[in-house]
Amino acid sequence: MANQDNTKNAVNVRKISKDEFKNKYFETSTESVALASDLNANSTDATVVAEEPVIDPATGKKVKKVVTARKDMTMAQWTIKEMKRNKVGYFMVAPFMLVFTLFTLFPVLLSFVLSFTSFNMLEFGWDIFIGIENYTRLFFDDDIFLQACKNTLVFAMVTGPISYILSFLVAWFINELAPKIRALVTLVFYAPSFGGNAYLVWQTLFHDDANGWVNGTLLDLGLINEPILWFHDENYAMTLCIVVALWMSLGTAFLSFIAGLQTMDKSLFEAAAVDGIKNRWQELWYITLPQMKPQLLFGAITAITGSFGFGAVVTALCGFPSVNYSCHTIMHCLDDYGSMRWEVGYASAIATILFLIMIGANMLVQKIISKVGQ
Amino acid sequence: MQKTQKMRIRNHQVVLNRSVGGDAGIFTFLAIMGFFMFLPMVYVIMQSLKPLDELFIFPPRFWVEKPTFGNFGSLFKLLSDSWVPFSRYIFNTVFITAAGVFGNLFFSSLAAYALAKIPFPGRVGIFKIIRSSLMFTATVTAIANFLTLSTLGLLDNHLAIIIPAWGSTLGLYLMKQFMDSSITDTVLESARLDGCSELKTFWVIAMPMVKPAWLTLIIYSFQGLWNAGASVYIYSEELKTLNYAIGQITSGGIARAGASAAGTVIMMIVPILVFIISQSNIIETMGSSGMKD
């Protein structure tokens, strides 16, 4: 009897979630929905021919405002009209876009172009265009790059998802703590990401010689006879780097999740409880996660860039190059050619490949996130 | 056949959908995680308080026996002996951080507001470009940046670090996501109808509603700039940063292990203070977050 009751309730919950939660509670959850909806809003704005008097805020007089329907205009006319109507938007974006174009967009575009050249910092000439030679060299002649690809994928596939899920779960768990305790707990979890070089403590803990805390303790207990080389041992280096990466993983995304959970609409939870949400996990899936989609998308980007671009810390811990290239990632190839050998053309090709991999990963994650709450 | 659920009271509030067992499980998970996360940080602090003989004792101890501030003393002595006065490095770092964080916050919020709430043609494309650019690693862009900065005459100038920080894409993305989700259009519409200019609407209406977001942006941006080390664009010694100066000392090897640990702690103190202040502000906004519509 009780069992039957449960299943009935479960069915109820599903039904409600599909039919109502999406329409009733969330007008604009994802980016795509938001964008689509305001495109619709625009078109309805424009098609309604407003003949009724509108009060002009500046003069306080009643002005007759005639809005031409969108269907009466060509696409270009409509665009120009919209541009004029919203021109303040361009002014607001302008300062950021200026800096962004100078210091991000231009360098990125330049390096796309350079990836088809043999440009380096030592020789200069106009016969540097070599087509896709850099790319063929990467995939057919560069064993170290292929090894690095493998390492990067292993590293990113382990640390990326775990750090992402961990960031969210911890943020969600501590969201219910009393405010002051929550600030303290946030500090504890965020402390490793405080930057600087706090991660170097792992080197002190796992130092190569008997002076390292782990080696010293293991020797003292008689578990090993000679110090283990930890970060300079092929068998341990990668695993340790993954541990350090996870230790540092509650970073920007974690903070944005905490902030996002703070701006949620709290009345939805009561409504949901009335509608048959029975435990915290259902609440998470049907109410919390759909509201958190913007932050989830943001967190995904930081998780991807973090896990694919985790190079500097590895270099600091394992040296460069790491023993037998055991921790050599694409970032290390990039450093190698970009800022040591100065083969900028080749390095640009590597950067482009890494960029494409990350774009692909992000598309995949966006697909997964769009399934949330269904 | 409606089953009545038993109400649980926590912090003088009714809590829905939370079982005691689940709470206990989560508490255990958090305790174990927290221990794992914080232990190395405790070790950093311990190391900075250890006298030299304890730093090299065998077997190594985790806890400090006779805590001393000697390491901090020797760090400051080394710093004050440097050719450029120590206070100069502090000024450089504070100036870069303050100017960079403020500009980053203002310009990216402004742009994020326009991208999220003003339907000007082209904004979708602009946002897509910005978002994609996040995934391009900075290593190979250094050369183009060097060319740009030298054309603008900004080499060997603090602005070479500050201005690029104003175009931080991650900050914009963060602000855009929050503006999209937690500002309702009806509030903005009514402000506009009341004759509020777009800039004023942004500053007076929109920004307070996304306070948690920009406090997060401040933490993130502050941290990055505070830890700015040696930059290839700055070569005068008197323009270099605190992190660079401390790095020079701590790279002195084993003899400076104590000073090195002290340096790590010193560099962490200010970001932690900023973090605590901004986090407690996030908590204050809780009270007002009910007035969404």
What would your notes on this structure say?
The complex is a heterodimer of chains A (374) and B (293). Chain A has a domain at 133-370: MetI-like fold, CATH 1.10.3720.10. Chain A has 17 helices and two strands. Chain A is flat and about 80 Å long. Chain A has a two-stranded antiparallel ribbon with strand order 1-2. The model of chain A is unreliable at 1-52 (pLDDT under 50). In chain A, helix 6 packs parallel to helix 10 and helix 11 runs antiparallel to helix 14 (293-308). Chain A has helices at residues 2-25, 31-47, 75-85, 87-114, 133-140, 143-174, 179-190, 201-205, 213-221, 234-247, 252-262, 267-275, 280-291, 293-308, 312-318, 330-339, 344-370; strands spanning 53-55, 62-64. Chain B has 293 residues and is mostly helical. Chain B has two domains: 8-68, no CATH class; 79-290, MetI-like fold. A two-stranded antiparallel sheet of chain B has the order 1-2. The longest helix of chain B is centred in the middle third of the chain and has 32 residues, at 86-117. Chain B is flat, with a radius of gyration of 25 Å. The two termini of chain B are 35 Å apart.
List keywords for this structure.
heterodimer, A: 374 residues, mainly alpha, MetI-like fold, two-stranded antiparallel sheet, 17 helices, 2 strands, 2% strand, flat, disordered N terminus, B: 293 residues, 13 helices, 67% helix, disordered C terminus
Q: Into which percent range does the helicity of residues of chain A fall?
A: 55-70%
Strand element count of chain B: 2
Superfamily at the CATH H level of the largest domain in chain B? MetI-like
Unreliable runs of chain A: 1-52
Write the CATH fold name of the largest domain in chain B. MetI-like fold
Query: Roughly what fraction of the amino acids of chain A lie in strands?
Result: under 5%
N- and C-termini, Cα separation of chain A: 28 Å
Structural class of chain A: mainly alpha
Largest sheet composition of chain A = 2 strands, antiparallel
How would you sum up the global shape of chain B?
A: flat
Give the radius of gyration of chain B: 25 Å
Question: What is the CATH homology-level superfamily of the domain at 133-370 in chain A?
Answer: MetI-like
Count of runs of 4 or more consecutive helical residues of chain B? 13
